[in-house]
Structures are given as C-alpha cells and as structure tokens.
Amino acid sequence: MKIKSSGSGPPDVDMTPMIDIVFQLIAFFMVITNFEQQQADERVTLPRDQLAKPPEVKRENSLTLNFGYEKNKLGEKIDPNPYIFFSGERFTVEESGLKLRSEAQFYKTIGTDLKDVTVEIRADAGVPSGMVQKLIQLCQEDGIGFQRFALKATQNRD
Amino acid sequence: MKIRARHSGGDKIETQMAPMIDVVFQLLIFFMLTLKIVEPEGDFDINMPLGAPQQSSMDNADLPPFKVRMQADPDTGELAMLSYNSQPLGSGPQAFLRLNSEILKSVNALNAAGPSNLDKQEVEIDPDYGLQYKNIISAISACSGKMVDGKMVRYIKKIKFAPIREPQ
Questions:
Q1: What is the rounded distance in angstroms from the CA atom of residue B34 to the CA atom of residue B66?
Q2: In angstroms, rounded to a whole number, what is the distance separating the alpha carbons of residues B85 and B49?
C-alpha cells in the first residue's frame, strides 16, 4: 500500500471551480439586476392586469410620477391623503403644478418637444380615479403642456 | 544601461489570484445586495380631453365614442355599477368580462362596416370621482383587448377619460 509522503510545503488548492462558480453568479446577478425601474416607488401598489405588458420599444423621453399613500412597514396607510412622490419630495396634486412646470421647462430647454414626452403615471390601486384625472388635467394646463400619458399596471401572469 | 537578463528557465510564472478573488467577491456582494426583485410593469396609453368640462367629448371623429360609465360605492370606492352605452353590466370582476364581450360585439360590427372605422373609434371612460383606480385599469384592459393563447388580440386603441366628475 502506498502511503502519501507528508511534504512540508503548503497543499495546492485548485481555485478554478470556485472562480468558475463565482463568475457564473456574477453574470447571473448582472443579468437579472434591473436598473431601469429605479423610478419605481415602493409606497405605490400598482393595480394588476393581464394585458399590462412592458412596451416593446423603450420610450426615449418619459416622466414618471408616483402617486400613492404614505405607508408604514406593514404596508398600512398612515395618511388618508394620496401624494405624488417625485425626486425625493412629496406633493398633493394641487401642489404639484410648480414642479410639473419646471419639468416641462427643462424639456423645452434641452430642445425636446413635449409631444414626444410621455408622462407615466404609477398610481396606487386604491387612489380615487378623479385625482388621477385631475393630475392628467394639470399636466395639460397652460404653461406645462404635456400631451402623452400612460397609466402603469403590474403584469398579472395568471 | 541595464538589460534584463532573459530568463530562459522552465519555471512557471505564478499569477496572484488573491486580488482577483477579492474584487470578484466584492462584485458578487454588490450585486447580491442591490438586487431588487421587481415584477414587470406595463402601461396603457390614455388621453384626457382638453378644455372646460362642459366641452363635448366628441371631437372631429365622425363616430361617437363608446361610453363606459363607472359608478362607485360612496363609502368604499369600490365599483357599484358598470354601464356600457347606458346598458348596465353589474359590478365586480364579472362586469368587466361582460364589458369585454360587449366591446367585442361592437368591434365586430365596426369591422363589418369597414376596418378603417375601428382605428378611429374611441372609448370614453367616465368614472365617479371616488372610484378606486384599479377599476379604471380593469375597464381600460377590457376595452383594449383580450389575451388568447398568450397573445393579445387588440380591440380598441384610443381610450380617453371623460371630464372629471367633481365629488358630491
């Protein structure tokens, strides 16, 4: 029977399989990480619908408005009034005119026609419809002038 | 000038794996921590009439819009009654299925009259102010089309809101 000689040098560890797996994991996480939906707000629970499929061609110019309720960690409403969450701030529909005006001004300054800008409304399933209509109407007012609107929903795979 | 002596020995050059493994693990941890599982989102295009609420909802199109009226329960904001061109369709999820089949009937009638009419046809959604928004999405979906074997069959493209009904 052969007996292994107990050499004094450190044992050679084959790193290749580990590196293979780690690279596979990195590739996996890189592929599934979605950097596109950074504008989504967790406070908004979108309604679900079967026909709500992501657009095949990504919109070049879009302005996302999150419209929902302040919620606690359990997802319960802590304020009965819905707010627009935009760039780290919150406004009521009535207060949002100033912000929308400055956004419209921004697009005009960079030479983008507002006809080509889509306002994507991510509204909570429980928000009153009249408020969503008011928000759209506000976006169309003189001095703002957005013309294209899209209502967001989560894709229901049932 | 110093000239490097060529090492013509058969020794293997040992690459330092430790820094690479460090960086690779850093990347792995970064991606693991920033991973946020989000469900795919889609959207529906919609228009809102410009101008005063008294303005007629009919524009330059020859065809009058299909009217979808949605009445809300004043206490809960849930759908109390759905009507299509003044025809009551009830409430709850079944009402949207009925709406979908009524729209299909209208689309077939339009197609029989001429396919170009279908592109011009609009649906006008007229909800109560307090109606929960999820019902709007269900109504838009019922008017937009239907999923058949994983593919969408498009009914009506142009969907718009009626002027706002102020809360009573």
A1: 46
A2: 19
Of B20, B43, B152, the CB nearest to A150: B43
ipTM above 0.85 for this complex: no
pLDDT tens string A118-133: 899 999 999 999 999 9
B28 neighbors A29 (Cβ within 8 angstroms): yes
Beta carbons of B42 and A124 less than 8 Å apart: no
Q: Is residue B2 part of a domain?
A: no
Nearest to A66 by CA among A140, A128, A136, A123: A123
- Domains, chain A, ordered by start: 41-155 (3.30.420)
Q: What is the pLDDT of residues B88-132, one digit of tens each?
A: 999 988 999 999 999 999 989 888 887 777 888 889 999 999 999
Phi, psi for B84 (deg, rounded to 5): -125, 115
In chain A, what residues touch B135 (CB-CB under 8 Å)?
Answer: 129
Shortest alpha-carbon distance between residue A112 and chain B (Å): 20
pLDDT at A78 over 60: yes
Chain B partners within 8 Å of A158 (Cβ): none
Instruction: Let me know if residue B24 belongs to a domain.
Output: no
Confirm whether B139 is domain-assigned.
Answer: yes
Residue of B30, B36, B43 to mutate, interface with A, max A Cβ within 10 Å = B43
The pTM of this model reads 0.78
Residues on chain A touching B138 (C-beta within 8 angstroms): 47, 49
- Report how far apart, in Å, the C-alpha atoms of B45 and of each of A55, A92, B111, B120 are: 11, 23, 22, 15
Inter-residue contact B156 to B41 (CB < 8 Å):
no
pLDDT at position B52: 45
Please determine, for residue A4, whether its predicted confidence score (pLDDT) is greater than 60. no
What integer pLDDT is reported at residue B3 of this predicted model?
56
